[in-house]
Amino acid sequence: MVGQTQAQTTETQPQPTTDPANAPPENPSPTTKIPFRPRKIRKLSPKTSSDSKSSQSTATENPKTTTESPKTAATATESPKITTTSKPSKSKLTPSSQPKPIVPTLMARSLSCEGEIEIALRHLRTADPILSSLIDHHQPPIFDSFHSPFLALSRSILYQQLAYKAGTSIYTRFVSLCGGESGVLPETILSLTPHQLRQVGISNRKASYLHDLARKYQNGILSDSSILELDDKSLFTMLTMVNGIGSWSVHMFMIFSLHRPDVLPVNDLGVRKGVQMLYGLEELPKPSQMEQLCEKWRPYRSVAAWYMWRFVEAKGSNSSAAVVTGENLQQQQQQQFLDPINGILNFGACAWGQ
Question: Which Gene3D superfamilies match (predicted)?
Answer without folding.
Answer: 1.10.1670.40, Hypothetical protein, domain 2
